[in-house]
Amino acid sequence: MLRWRLPLGAVLIAALVGLCWLDHAAAMQGAWLMPVAIVVTILAAGEMLGLAKSVGLAPVGWATQVGTLAVVLASWLPILLWRVPGETPPGWLESSAGAGAGSISWPVLALAAGVLLAFLAEMRRFDQPGGATASLAVSVLTMVYVGLMLSFVVRLRLGWGIGALASLVIVVKMGDTGAYTVGRLVGRHKLAPRLSPGKTVEGAIGALAFAALGSWFTFAWLIPWINTPNGSESASSLGWGWLLFGLLVGAAGLLGDLAESLLKRDAGRKDSSDWMPGFGGVLDILDSILLAAPAAYVCWASNLVGG
Q1: Residue ranges of domains in the chain
Q2: pLDDT tens digit string along 33-89?
Q3: 3-state SS assignment for residue 276
Q4: Model pTM score
Q5: Strands (E), the chain
Q6: CB of 245 closer than 8 Å to CB of 299
Q7: Cα-flanking dihedrals φ and ψ of residue 216, to 5°?
Q8: For residues 93 and 99, what is the distance between their CA atoms, to the nearest angstrom?
Q9: Which residue from 178, 193, 189 is spatially nearest to 247, judged by alpha carbons?
Q10: Residue 105 and residue 120: Cα distance in Å, rounded?
């Protein structure tokens, strides 16, 4: 699988960097990345349905997909409908552009609508007792785990720019790299053997160290370079928020990896799907990002970083 993983990984990274640059330069925020988010949402929700099918559960697929996609799209709704440029985070809760609902409220409203849709779909097909409650639980879990978590990723990009999105992805993926590298080199003590036998305590420490390094690079050099013509801000003017950001987001990413391992082990599957050789499925790539996104959002919204 390594012969697939390396070239495919290089292609994915190059494509992501290119799309982020195009999106950064676009007149409308999210013009390039939102189509990607839509495709990723559909694929990830489909993989959740596939995991559920492995354990004999069969939620209404179309209702789950529509509800999950609605939650993600709701994050982009104010930009799409009202074209509000430069919204600042404090204004999200009291946005007049949202006709009384701040833009951060839209994903929650979409989630409520998705839950209602799932109930209606289950009512329509109900035939005999047994299974409806479990199916509803899978539908709602998918909307929250995939839809709501991804909405934080979208809000990072729309609220603070491409640099905020980069901070999440770089820190999380550096953490993944550190966990794998340190775990392979010196890992001895199992971290969660029943969920992920390959993960070690040493690897987890490596994940946090690499995540902190990625955070330092992002806030000391990458974001100043993105935001200023000559990158005039430098490491000398950097506070210590980057360290806490790296540790919090890195730890959340590590938990996100274990969370998806829980779902896969419960379904008796090694990967969420097998359509990407060497990587598995979309959830196998997103797992650490999904639970790390709310942590990154809180750090940016509280001005721990980016202030």
Answers
A1: 32-160, 161-307
A2: 999 999 999 999 999 999 999 999 999 999 999 999 999 999 887 766 655 444 444
A3: strand
A4: 0.88
A5: 190-192, 196-200
A6: yes
A7: -60, -45
A8: 11
A9: 178
A10: 23
